[in-house]
Amino acid sequence: MTRVNTGVRFEGMVMQYLRARAFFVVRSAGSHGACDLVAWNGSSCFVIQCKKELRRNGYAEDIAALKAVPILSGWGRQLWVKHKSEIAVCDVDSGVESLLYVRDMNRVIRGEK
């Protein structure tokens, strides 16, 4: 499987997870832009960049590109990075990071509690 295919699979997983959490999600397929997904529900909206691998040199370029995306007040920018069974979700504007596990995401996608 190519890096592009694994990246698309990860984007799809994030989409399914957010949809299970009552978000409407749009993927910007093939855009090669700063964001892969836009997700919103009644009260929140996020532009999201998904990365399937850890990088030795970090994500400074991706974060800078996301910060350059013009957003409305109240919107957020997130970087989702998958490494093995863990997914780090970083709020680019505040720097707050949270950790998800693939197994927990799959439970939400399947509708399990």
Short overview:
The protein is an alpha+beta fold and 113 residues long. The protein has helices at 3-20, 60-67, 102-110, and strands at residues 24-27, 37-40, 45-51, 76-83, 86-91, 97-101.
List keywords for this structure.
31% helix, 6 strands, Trna Endonuclease, Chain: A, domain 1, alpha+beta, 113 residues
Provide a descriptive summary of the structure in words:
This protein is α+β, with helices and mostly antiparallel strands. It is built from three helices and six strands.
What is the overall number of helices? Answer: 3
Helix-strand topology string: HEEEHEEEH
What is the SS-derived class?
A: alpha+beta
Ranges with pLDDT <50 over ≥5 residues? none
Helix content: 25-40%
Spatial order of strands in the largest sheet:
1-2-3-4-5-6
Cα-atom Rg, whole angstroms?
13 Å
Distance linking N and C termini: 32 Å
| Domain tally | 1
* Mean pLDDT over all positions: 89
CATH class: Alpha Beta
For the sheet with most strands, the description reads:
6 strands, mixed
- The CATH topology label is Trna Endonuclease, Chain: A, domain 1
Count of extended strands: 6
Fraction in beta strands: 25-35%
What is the level-2 CATH architecture name?
Answer: 3-Layer(aba) Sandwich
Principal-axis shape: globular
Secondary structure: elements and pairs:
Blueprint (H helix, E strand, L loop, with lengths): L2 H18 L3 E4 L9 E4 L4 E7 L8 H8 L8 E8 L2 E6 L5 E5 H9 L3
Parallel strand pairs: 3-4
Antiparallel strand pairs: 1-2, 2-3, 4-5, 5-6
Helix pairs in contact: 1-3
